[in-house]
Amino acid sequence: MSVAIVGAAECDLGSTGLSILGLQTQAVTRALADAGLSLADVDGIATTGVARFSATSLAEHLGIRPSWTDSTFAGGSAFEMFVARAAQAIEAGQVEVVVISFASNQRSARSRSLGGVYEAWTPEAQFEAPYDPLYPASYYAMAAQAYLHRHGASREQLAEVAVAAREWALLNPAAYRHDAGPLTVDDVLGAPMLSSPLTVADCCLVTDGGGAVVLTSLERARDLRRTPVEVLGYGESTTNASMTAVDDLTVTGAVASGAAAFGRAGLTPADVDVAQLYDSFTITVLLSLEALGFCGPGEAGSFLRERALPLNTSGGGLSYCHPGQFGVLLLVEAVRQLRGECGARQVPGAEVAVAHGTGGILSTHATVLLGVAR
Question: Is 278 among the residues known to form the active site?
């Protein structure tokens, strides 16, 4: 049995003043309406970030009693992981319609913490907290510093990630930076330094927001209102909790998750028409491009500068929105691109998309390949 995404939507973005459950309700009901389904059709929920028992809390709030749930907390990659688990559950006949969702009101609530105390309770904190790193910025900055040293890359190459994201955001009316104007490499380099070599322009936004996608069997999907987007392949890898456990900060678990996803799909990176790669920081994109096989080690900067692949076409976490965990919105944009709904930012003839999530401090990695169902 094949599985497809049949609905996709975002909730309100920016600074909304709404609660997490209010934003979640928007995301879920909008995605179901997009699919031509209702809450009565839903028997599976996958979400995180709501409460200690996130799926349970959301199900109760929505007034449904699902037969299948998942609330795995793996950071930004969780939603690509949810796609795999949901597909497996649908194929097994355990569930028929699954909603994967996330929302956060972190900007309105002013809840985001950058201090090292954020993870002070973890076992690895004894080795890291005494240095008072910014969490997670200083950790990604170490990866960036290692990448620049290892490959002789330049700060300008990192900055190109943010510049490219802004180019797409200017074409997306929903993007937080839609009206901010173009971003230049000099703008990125000249922004206030946060954690060397990363300036604030190398770092994702802090916004409210979120989204949802709806999955069901491809057989059922063909009777619904939207073009089905088939789940072609998936893979995941969990590598580390702390930076002290990483042998090489320039090689991530995306190598394994990408290989598994491409292998299941019977595809290669050359088959991908549009890519949505988690861009928590500019370095995350360079590392992911190389790990997924779109270019060789040290080549991501040149690959990006040449705009060799439509990438983060919503504007990404750097210029579209970033509600703390961005992975579900990678899926939303991938689906919209494959359905040809993106207006000025539409990639012509897009038939295969990759959505790749990264969670924690380069800790968890999950890759999903999607294609227009035939």
Answer: yes
